[in-house]
Prior knowledge:
The complex is a heterodimer of chains A (198) and B (299). With 198 residues, chain A is α/β, with parallel strands linked by helices. Chain A has helices at residues 11-27, 47-56, 67-70, 73-83, 160-169; strands at 33-34, 63-65, 87-88, 96-99, 124-128, 138-141, 149-151, 176-180, 184-188, 193-197. Chain A has one domain (11-197): Bacterial phosphonate metabolism protein PhnH (Rossmann fold), CATH 3.40.50.11310. Chain A has 5 helices and 10 strands. In chain A, the strands form 2 sheets. A 7-stranded mixed β-sheet of chain A has the order 1-9-8-5-4-2-3. In chain A, α1 packs across α2. The model of chain A has no long low-confidence stretch (mean pLDDT 96). Chain B has 299 residues and is an alpha/beta fold. In chain B, 25% of the residues lie in helices and 17% in strands. Chain B has a 7-stranded mixed β-sheet. Chain B has a 3-stranded antiparallel β-sheet with strand order 7-6-10. Chain B has a two-stranded antiparallel sheet with strand order 11-12. Chain B is globular and about 60 Å long. The model of chain B is unreliable at 283-299 (pLDDT under 50). The chains are: A alpha/beta (198), B alpha/beta (299). At the A-B interface, α1 of A face α1, β1 and α4 of B.
Amino acid sequence: MGALLAGFADPVLAAQATFRGVMDALARPGTIVPLIDTIAAPAPLSAAAAAAALTLLDGDTPVWLDAPLAAQADVAAWLRFHTGAPIVSSPADAAFAIVADPERLPPFESFAIGSLENPDCSATLILQVRSFDAGAPLAVAGPGIADRAILRAAPLPNDFPARLVANRAMFPRGVDLLLVTGTAVAALPRSVTLLGEA
Amino acid sequence: MTVTYNFAYLDEQTKRMIRRAILKAIAIPGYQVPFASREMPMPYGWGTGGVQVTAAILGPTDILKVIDQGSDDTTNAVSIRKFFGRTAGVRTTTRTADATVIQTRHRIPETPLRDNQVLVFQVPIPEPLRFLEPRETETRRMHALEEYGLVQVKLYEDIARHGHIATTYAYPVKVDGRYVMDPSPIPKFDNPKMSDCPALQLFGAGREKRIYAIPPHTRVASLDFDDHPFERWRHPGRCALCGADDSFLDEVITDDHGTRMFVCSDTDFCEARRAAGHGPDAPGATAPDPARGTEASHG
């Protein structure tokens, strides 16, 4: 294990700027929002996922890492040092999940989806995608979207559209998705309705 | 020794906790997310919930506007504006169009909001069912089961007693066809502005420790009946200062003999109109019919 990589140079303002990016993305599902304060983190943790992690994680938020991330001890060490978040081995125990290989994303139901009484006690999944220019275009509607929004992202699981439909059917329970490339974020909260693959 | 605060007063762990609550609130429109509300250097009831939400989202490039009942000049608004001017060093404004974050107590500005703005409401009682059912366990269950008959009964009792829905502020709404939500004590005149609004709307209740949200372009319907549709209401007549006949008016008592005038509640809207040359047109403009009037605009 090498020397630990640094966190945000300006933790207060970088976290604020990153949060506003994530908030804007979540408030306008399907919109791609650039993240300025991305940060070099141990591979395969991407720069934007790392920024989101520093912004949202702390000792109160158990985090689950998928196999490629869990295989690199540097990733867990970096997250533990900078955020203090406990790293859990069961997806169901996690408030956040970071996924480097979205094609092998476990089923949404294996994460916390909340209860009807407390739907907020549910996981936020941070999926590292390669780009927003590839993949089947997904047409979505719902709160935050004036008419319809089109989002492309790859890689994603083959059954991703069916999962989105099932996630919406569970509303108000469900998981919320943050899709991040190295420099941008787009969100698909549980409130989105899939209109189809445009 | 100079005392310096963290940017926007709150510590970073508190901000993260509030930010996570805001994200869940946006993902579940209208649902009240519990959060660990902090003591703020102002009393409950002065906007501690709104202040915490504002502190969690505010950045150095934001321009902040704070209104209390539509006015930029009341104690509450001035104090909160100064608070963030001092602890965050952000620019402040009274002009709705220039602001990126607007914290409000009990009004939505008359000037239509844009998509790069966030409206932060101060909320005293976030639970629309609380006066009908005091137990949190029960109201939580009612929201879970979408069991909102009790609210309709309350509105029906208004009609039975008064002949019309007499609820004039904090008028309950349904967000995206799912959660019934208290819009905070805004006049029902403002309710239609919440629907399909381009700006993000965040609600913070400090004492009651709840945060909720309406994402942009979300359907927000005021509850009503087919034979008693929701009606906006404003004092009929024109503003005594700018002559506006479409803004929400405040009644101002001007002496000990009951003389009164009606002026725009939104001071920025009124000032902008006067600066543009508008004034009271007709002499009768200052004394509108005191009888209850209804604008024929359904929302």
